[in-house]
């Protein structure tokens, strides 16, 4: 057993309290490899932002569960060594079973999501409660989910979204004991969040549902998944250098900024990081065809991701400048 406190990590409790009081959101960035982790940690350290580094079931299998623990420990140490220490949460994204959540807790995760949102309501409650009971014994925080987001990725699949029903949230939170709740108000996973016809613009998020939820569970930390903006600069870069991402569109930054000032305390971003890295890698490979040293294309990709993270922390989530105060 590796307990997260022994490798310099923290759980999400204090971060969410501060985010709620301060009108900002904690960034939750997904990673699967060293360059992504370096970019996330140094982007957050340089903008003095608390951070949740998160790993899906597929990412954990890809990176290797033992290596991941050491990578997280190393990430904390790297920021500290640079004189830019920040609080770091290692979080399981979209955990789908008690066994997976338990295994993560035993290998240094300080926070887990148990996503029972596709299950019948009572089954979601039973599974979530079981994970909470285990996790809380180790002071690990737990995120549950009510409502379904659309989108298709390795481990997260749903054709259609179902908005969260505000009538269920109070019962769900009190019966499961979760520490935060992911909701569905119009975001979705991946790079194709809306199918827009000529002349159409992105529909606004359902802030009316969010307000209803806030009324039922005042002050309770809310999580927004599927919150990439699908940054057009990188979509265009990918398309320019041989890719094909026509029609990729995400959540406008002003919508996320507004969400961050509400009860939304955690905002999940994965696709934007993938787009930034892929755009830069394509650009280097296309413009320097004789290059074959991975550092020469992964390095610029890492730099682009770091800059994107600094921008998001400063201008979208508002988390910049709140790192050290939470240590
Ligand atoms: O919401 C899901 C995350 O973007 C992780 O995706 O299962 O492809 O690693 P993944
Ligand atoms: P995006 O696909 O919008 O980046 O969402 C990521 C996410 O919700 C991870 O859980
Ligand atoms: Zn998600």
DSSP summary: helix tally: 12
Q: CATH first level: which class?
A: Alpha Beta
What pattern of helices and strands is seen along the backbone?
A: HEHEHHEHEHEEEHEHEHHEHH
Distance between the termini: 24 Å
User: What is the β-strand count?
Assistant: 10
- What is the H level of CATH, i.e. the homologous superfamily? Aldolase class I
According to CATH, the fold-level topology is: TIM Barrel
Overall helicity:
40-55%
Polypeptide structure, described:
- The protein is α/β, with parallel strands linked by helices and about 325 residues long.
- The chain has a single domain (about 5-325), classed as TIM Barrel, CATH 3.20.20.
- The protein has helices at about 15-20, 35-45, 55-65, 65-80, 100-105, 120-135, 165-175, 205-215, 230-240, 255-260, 270-285, 295-315, and strands at about 25-30, 50-55, 90-95, 110-115, 140-145, 150, 155-160, 180-185, 220-225, 265-270.
- The chain has an 8-stranded parallel barrel with strand order 1-2-3-4-5-8-9-10, surrounded by 9 helices. A two-stranded antiparallel ribbon has the order 6-7.
- The chain is globular and about 60 Å long.
- The protein starts with 12 loop residues before the first helix and ends in a 10-residue tail after the last helix.
- Glyceraldehyde-3-phosphate (G3H) binds near residues 156 and 189.
């Amino acid at each position: 057993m590796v307990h997260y406190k022994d490798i310099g990590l923290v759980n999400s409790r204090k971060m969410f309290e501060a985010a709620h009081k301060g009108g900002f959101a904690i960034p939750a960035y997904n990673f699967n490899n060293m360059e992504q982790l370096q970019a996330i940690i140094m982007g957050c350290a340089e903008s003095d932002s608390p951070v949740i580094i998160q790993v899906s079931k597929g990412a954990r299998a890809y990176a290797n569960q033992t290596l991941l623990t050491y990578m997280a420990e190393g990430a904390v140490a790297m920021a500290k060594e640079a004189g830019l220490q920040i609080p770091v949460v290692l979080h399981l994204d979209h955990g789908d079973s008690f066994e997976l959540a338990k295994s993560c807790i035993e290998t240094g995760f300080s926070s887990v999501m148990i996503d029972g949102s596709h299950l019948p309501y009572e089954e979601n409650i039973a599974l979530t409660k079981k994970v909470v009971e285990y996790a809380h014994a180790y002071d690990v925080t737990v995120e549950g989910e009510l409502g379904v987001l659309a989108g298709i990725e390795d481990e997260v699949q749903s054709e259609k979204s179902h908005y969260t029903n505000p009538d269920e949230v109070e019962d769900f939170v009190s019966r499961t004991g979760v520490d935060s709740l992911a909701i569905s108000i119009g975001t979705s996973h991946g790079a194709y969040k809306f199918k827009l016809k000529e002349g159409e613009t992105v529909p606004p998020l359902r802030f009316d549902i969010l307000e209803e939820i806030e009324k039922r569970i005042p002050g309770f930390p809310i999580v927004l998944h599927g919150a990439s903006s699908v940054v057009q600069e990188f979509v265009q870069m990918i398309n320019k250098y041989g890719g094909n991402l026509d029609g990729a569109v995400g959540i406008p930054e002003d919508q996320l900024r507004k969400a961050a000032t509400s009860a939304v305390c955690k905002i999940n971003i994965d696709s934007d990081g993938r787009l930034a890295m892929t755009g830069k890698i394509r650009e280097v490979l296309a413009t320097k065809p004789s290059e074959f040293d991975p550092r020469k294309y992964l390095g610029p990709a890492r730099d682009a991701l770091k800059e994107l993270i600094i921008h998001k922390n400063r201008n979208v989530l508002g988390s910049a400048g709140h790192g050290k105060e939470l240590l």
